[in-house]
Amino acid sequence: MSCAKILSPVMPRREFLLAVSAAMAIVSSGAVQAQERKLTVGVVLPLSGTFADQGQHYESGIKLYQKLHGTKVGDVTVETVVRDDQGPGSGDLSRRLTQELILRNKADIILGYSFTPNAMAAATLLTEAKKPAIIINAATSVITEKSPYFARVSFTLPQLAASLGTWAAKNNLKTAYTIVSDYAPGIDAETWFKKSFEAGGGKIVGEARTPISAMEYSPFLQRAMEAKPDLVFAFNPGGDVSVAFMKSAKERGLTKAGIKLLVTGDVVDDSMLPAIGDALDGVISALHYQVELDNPENAKFLKGYHEMYGADAMPSYRVVQAYDGMALIYKALQQTGGKTDADSLMAAIKGAKLDSPRGPIEIDPATRDIIENIYIRRGEQKNGKWSNVAFETLKAVKDPAK
Ligand code: PHB
Questions:
Q1: In a domain, 107, yes or no
Q2: How far, in Å, from the CA of 78 to the mean position of ligand 1?
Q3: Are residues 243 and 386 in the same domain?
Q4: Rounded to whole angstroms, how far apart are CA atoms 402 and 399?
Q5: How do residues 275-297 score in pLDDT, each as one tens digit?
Q6: Of 24, 30, 383, 401, which has the fewest beta carbons less than 10 angstroms from its beta carbon?
Q7: Which domain holds residue 195?
Q8: CB neighbours of 128 closer than 8 A, spacing ≥ 6?
């Protein structure tokens, strides 16, 4: 109905009043619509291929968070649009999906990236489009420096590797052989283990780099054993690849030969322990989470997880990373009073503090990387089950590479 018709002087009074009330109804329903605000989270995860299990873990963390906390923050509805980046590759697919999420799906913020190349490939695009992105895993230190719109809620390889290097040197281990996946996070792991181990008086006696999706580690382990180091330090990117590495180390008799095995925690993720079995015996690892942590947020998280996925289901730390990614978005929205523009969200994300199932966490306002506790664990059998048992807590660890 046009305004001209509503205001027409020749319109009879009754018709005029009806027209006015109809117009008011239209205006007020518009007002209701304007109040129905929404934040679209574009989610980029590996949901197919060798590392599809990782995507499932992240997705279950996102779903669990929304089940426990609802889909609204104030009057803003938080909706997710999920896309499959198929795991590590050139990053082209990840960039294209990120672009589509922003342009077609009108994503206000991106959550995702399990693999470094996939996060790196999206950096310039995020900067140009001015869209914040919460990294839920990709762990090469330098990523967050590639866009001012990146923040990371997971960990960096230097955080884990340097913690292990320091621990090894302190515990009287003198020589090490490193075996890492041959791409950026592996190089970070190798560099930072070496730096901290050597700073404590240790010596690296050999290094090997393995293909990212390698399922065969015998030749690498054989060469490491021939070098007779006190320890082998390893990083590989989780899932079947890490199970294969652990089984191979057991078959080769690495620890039987008196060589200690130290790994970043993703290699012995709690959810993979049934597959790793006794290959976990005595293995030292560093990670920011483990299921046994005793804090109220972890109790709530585990209760919700078991209700959703079954009493015997064992959450991966990757579930926690995605859960915390959503927690960070909710917290930022609360702080902005529902504003969804990039600059308001980023201002709220920088310096955000949260109680996570892994303990207290903070987004370092200077680097947009996470500050968190790192737990040093030992593989042991507990109540008939293989577990990573924490025996040392390093408090509020920053990324040492920045
Ligand atoms: C990475 O590509 O940055 C990455 C992937 C899997 C991991 C750790 C790091 O477990």
A1: yes
A2: 27
A3: yes
A4: 6
A5: 999 999 999 999 999 899 999 99
A6: 383
A7: 158-287+375-397
A8: none
For residue 114, which atom of ligand 1 is closest to its CA? 5
Q: Is 263 in the pocket of ligand 1 (CB under 6 A)?
A: no
Is residue 237 in contact with ligand 1, taking CB distance under 6 Å?
A: yes
In this structure, the answer to whether residues 167 and 150 fall within a common structural domain is no
* Assigned domain for 17 exists: no
Query: pTM for this structure?
Result: 0.91
CATH number for the domain that contains residue 96:
3.40.50.2300
Q: How far is the CA of 334 from the centre of ligand 1 (A)?
A: 30
Please tell me what DSSP assigns to residue 398.
P
Across-strand partners of 111? 43, 134
Dihedral (Cα; 36, 37, 38, 39), 10-degree rounding: -160
Q: Mind listing the pLDDT tens digit for each residue in 304-360?
A: 999 999 999 999 999 999 999 999 999 999 999 999 999 999 999 999 999 999 999
Nearest 5°: the CA angle 331, 59, 283 is: 95
The reply to whether 15 falls in a domain is no
Q: Is residue 13 part of a domain?
A: no
Mutate to test the pocket of ligand 1, among 58, 120, 137, 399 (most ligand atoms within 8 A of CB): 137
